[in-house]
Amino acid sequence: MADLSDNEKENLQQTLAQSGFRPLNKTERRNIWLHDYQQQDIALQSWARVVEQQGLEIDVMLQMQGLLVFGTMVNTRAYAQFYVDMHERMYRQESPETADFLHEYYAALVPPDDQPEIGPEGLPIMFRYAHLRDVTIMSAGHKIKVPYWRGKLNEVDAFVVGASAGE
Asked: Where is this region: Disordered (predicted)?
C-alpha cells in the first residue's frame, strides 16, 4: 500500500470494509494452525520437513482413502522443476505466454530457501503436501504409474518409509 496515493488507499480501505474482508489477527491464525496441527501425523510431517529442508529423497508408501501410493518423496523444488521443464518443452515455441504462466505457477509453490522454522502464528511451519517421483498408484488390483504426484499430507491414513511397489 506504500505505493498508493492517499486517495487510492482510502478507496481500497472502503472497498475492503464493504466486502467484509479483514486480515486475520494473530489469535485467529494461531487457532487455524492448531486446528490444522490436530489433523497432522507428526511423524509424517517430520519426514516431509527433512525432505523439504535437507533435499533428502525417501522411498515411501502412502495409504490414502483405499489407494496405495508408492514412490520416492522429493522436495517441492524437484517436483516443480519437473513440470517447469516439461511445460517449457511443450509450450515455449508456440505459446510463450502459457509457458511463462506455468513457470510462475510452479515457481510460486517452492518455499523460499530462507523460510523460517516459525511462522506468523508463532508456531512451527507445517508442510501441507507430499511430492513423490516415480510413482505407482494401486487400487483393487489396478496399477497406474506416473512420473510425479502431489498429495495432501493430512489426508494420508498410513505410511511406510522404505517401501517400494516391487514388480
From this structure: 1-20
